[in-house]
Amino acid sequence: MQRPRTPCNTLAPGHGSRRVRDRTSEGITHVASSRPDRDADQIQADLGATRDRLAAGIEALIDQVHPQRVKQRQVDGAKRFLHTEIEKAKSLVFNARGDLRTERVGIVGGAVAGAVTLLVVLRTVVRRRRG
To answer: Which residues lie within the region annotated Disordered (predicted)?
Structure first.
């Protein structure tokens, strides 16, 4: 029983060339290219360009997953986040001219004093119940 001939089309990335493979029942594969006029220099240039793209891709992948680079990206992100948060906090305490916003400082001071007082009271209550 003969197998039907089925073409298998593949496109080379970046080149737009089309190769057709015909498989016959005898197991012989015929390859036809849409650019049969290429000489050895053109093929070598294509191979070199492909090799360069592959090397660049591998270098980018290694750079992306290397532990030192992952650590450095995390540190840089944390520094950016911290800098942004510090600037936000400064804008709450200082106005555009750099003057201190005394009403906000008073509110923050009152909140801190209230929190400290609450902690002292809670500590006193807990110690009295224990002993």
So the answer is: 1-41
Same domain, 45 and 30: no
Q: Angle between the 67-93 and 40-65 helix axes, to the nearest 10 degrees?
A: 60
Q: Are residues 52 and 80 in the same domain?
A: no
Asked whether the beta carbons of 32 and 20 are under 8 A apart, the reply is yes
Sheet holding 18-23, edge to edge: 7-11, 18-23, 29-33
Q: Are 7 and 22 in contact (CB under 8 A)?
A: yes
- pTM here? 0.42
Residues 123 and 105 grouped into a single domain: yes
Task: Give residue-wise pLDDT tens across range 14-49.
Answer: 545 455 555 555 665 555 555 568 899 999 999 999
Report residues of the chain scoring pLDDT below 50. Answer: 6-12, 15, 17
Q: How would DSSP label each residue in 4-33?
A: PP-EEEEE-TTT--EEEEEE-TTS-EEEEE
Do 54 and 73 share a domain, yes or no? Answer: no
Helix axes 102-130, 67-93, angle to 10 degrees: 110
